[in-house]
Amino acid sequence: MNWSALDWSILGPAFVAGLLVLVTHVPLGTQVLDRGIVFIDLAIAQIAGLGVIAADAMGLPEGGVAVQMAAVVAALLGAALLTWTERKAPQQQEALIGVMFILAACAGILLLSGNPHGGEHLKELLVGQILWVNTTQLLWLGGVSGLILLALWRGWISKLGRFGFYAVFALAVTASVQLVGVYLVFSSLIIPALATRTAQPNRRHPTAYAIGVVGYALGLALSALMDLPSGAVIVWTLAACGLLWVNIHARFTTA
Amino acid sequence: MTKFKSHCMLLAAPLVLLAFPAHAALRVFSCEPEWGALAQELGGNLVDVSVATNALQDPHQIQAKPSLIARARSADLVVCTGAELEVGWLPVLLAQSGNAKVQEGQPGNFAAANFVRKLEVPTQLDRSQGDVHAAGNPHIQTDPRNIALVATALATRLQQVDPAHADQYAQRQADFTQRWQQAMGRWNAQAAPLRGVAVVSQHKAFVYLYDWLGLKELAVLEPKPGVEPTASHLQEVLVSLKKTPARMTIYSAYQDPKPADWLNRNAGVPAVKIPFTVGGTEGAKDLFGLFDDTISRLLAVGDKP
Prior knowledge:
- The structure holds 2 protein chains of 2 kinds.
- Chain A contains 9 helices and no strands.
- Chain A has one domain: ABC transporter involved in vitamin B12 uptake, BtuC.
- The model of chain A has no long low-confidence stretch (mean pLDDT 88).
- The longest helix of chain A has 40 residues, at 156-195.
- By secondary structure, chain A is mainly alpha-helical.
- Chain B is α/β, with parallel strands linked by helices.
- Chain B folds into 2 domains: 17-186, Nitrogenase molybdenum iron protein domain (Rossmann fold), CATH 3.40.50.1980; 191-302, Rossmann fold, CATH 3.40.50.1980.
- In chain B, helix 4 links the parallel strand 3 (77-80) and strand 4 (109-111).
- The longest helix of chain B is centred in the middle third of the chain and has 25 residues, at 166-190.
- Chain B is globular and about 60 Å long.
- Chain B starts with a helix and ends with a helix.
């Protein structure tokens, strides 16, 4: 193995990005799993992307604040829509989320057919790559994650009811997907929460965090040592850590 | 246990070699295989070339690997196409590398497209035209005359960043230029029957090839990369092909041949895959093979009356 590849100055920012994503996604993931709406993150990310394409089509200035605002506004509108559908048809919520994902993706294609420039923004938004993160992005993500964590902890979100959950979710996903991409957002959300489903309630979050942190660290190290794309390796190490934990946990509880 | 250890050592041996590259060599980081191959031709054992993308990858976008940043960080010279081809990832990579030598505008940053006459430079920048490159079409490597121009410029640049070996670079360049001129004479003679042959492009990526060989582009199947062509566009293509039939549809090895196959089924126009860059096909092992193979593939279909 090429141990010299383990360069902290290259892997460090990516690891910090992973930790910041985990901070919000682990608690949100347990809620998503309990509600049985696993694909909501894909739908929200796609709707945020649609907002960016629409902003571009309307001639708003490219890049920076305008694009971020468009993404957040679209994601919040999506959250409002999801709140409404959950009230009207709670049994069909998961199917409706799936339909919304596809509709947003196809609306994007239709808008892009007249303006392929938006495609670049969409790609930037959905296919973030964890190794490319810079300090400014980390500071922003840190700010957003800190606010969300504070809101979760102080119980502000439960006061807002259904919309509170969807709105916070929309903000968290929009912020993280641009840095680490859709695959990592999905895995950070679902895998730790899924692996700790049977854990005792008061131990669930610490365990899920541990799985996530080990998964990211291992994935980044492996991707450096074996020279493979980092995001995809981390998805696999997260799953491996989750599986390992489930096995250990099962053995200890049956013994 | 000893068996396990010996296995580990066997596995580790080649990796150890990888970990200690020759230190004296000039480290060249190239974005696309064609420039890696050219740097190797011009630098020989004076350079240690690494290539960011392989021939079957879309050079517009790549997956971030830690080694990419590490290689950009230690590079003495970055050789890329420029003209916005790598705009999606190279600026981020260079910023991330923190390597002052290879930032834009430095001698260690070489953009091949700056040294050729670019085609399809939009006369007016209008967003309604869709995915246009403001700097012109960046796929310059499909014309060997461009390779010759870039070779001259790159040799000069190698001498500039590694002056201790300037004589050797000059010698290698003279040798390469002579072989390249000979090969170009051969290619021009071989490709003479292709002049004026009507073709369809799968993407707008071959304008320099057409300019060199005198091929006539009748239509483009997917005018906007990544966006499905509309039904009316495909209909237009079919109608125009009825009026003036095309001999073949050309697509690059890294692209999905589905659109070209579709046209083959619907209009009987055979699809021809060309390597597009070094490594794209079995025959395109180096820069010479790239054009040998491209021309023989075009002639296999285009030479018939």
